[in-house]
Amino acid sequence: MEDQSDLIEMTAGIVSAYVGNNVVSTADLPALIKQVHAALATVGSPAAEPAPAPKEPAVPVKRSITPDYLICLEDGRKFKSLKRHLRTKYDLTPEDYRSKWGLPKDYPMVAPNYAEARSNLAKQMGLGQGGRKPARKAK
């Protein structure tokens, strides 16, 4: 409340000084008061912060994929799998990460050699070999 009354006092002082030294019609007086009041109201408020400049990736996108690891574009660290790092450190999903850096939808989140090793391990364990066999009919 105190700030508002101070603002009104300052507006009145400025407008009265202006009107005392300049010719202002009575029709223009309300617009002048509004302009001065609006200008004074914005003086105390912080200016809008400029939008942050787009961040540069830690490494070029083409060099971020190697056979044994992926390099995180956020911090330049090497990982076999990026998904957990992105979630815990930056609270990003793979989709958010891809859109932030303008990556294609098929950009990998797992290093190629690691994905192949996990695939071979799953095949050795018999995963992906079809589901249950149909039940035999009762006699």
List the helices and strands and how they pair.
Elements: H1 2-21, H2 29-44, E1 70-71, E2 78-79, H3 83-90, H4 94-101, H5 112-124
Antiparallel strand pairs: 1-2
Helix pairs in contact: 1-2
Précis, in short:
By secondary structure, the chain is mainly α. 47% of the residues lie in helices and 3% in strands. Strands 1-2 form a two-stranded antiparallel ribbon.
Question: How does this model look, in words?
Answer:
This protein is mainly alpha-helical. It has helices spanning 2-21, 29-44, 83-90, 94-101, 112-124; strands at 70-71, 78-79. The chain has two domains: 2-43; 61-124, ROS/MUCR transcriptional regulator protein (Arc Repressor Mutant, subunit A), CATH 1.10.10. It contains five helices and two strands, in the order ααββααα. Strands 1-2 form a two-stranded antiparallel ribbon. The longest helix has 20 residues, at 2-21. The termini are far apart. The mean pLDDT is 88.
CATH superfamily of the largest domain: ROS/MUCR transcriptional regulator protein
Under the CATH scheme, which class of the largest domain?
Mainly Alpha
β-strand percent reads under 5%
Mean pLDDT: 88
Question: How many β-strands, per DSSP?
Answer: 2
Sheet/helix structural class: mainly alpha
| Spans where pLDDT lies below 50 across 5 or more residues | none
Shape: elongated
Which strand order does the major sheet show? 1-2
Count of helical stretches: 5
The string of secondary-structure elements, in order, is: HHEEHHH
What is the architecture of the largest domain at the second tier of CATH? Orthogonal Bundle
Query: Helicity level, as a percent range?
Result: 40-55%
**CATH fold category name of the largest domain:** Arc Repressor Mutant, subunit A
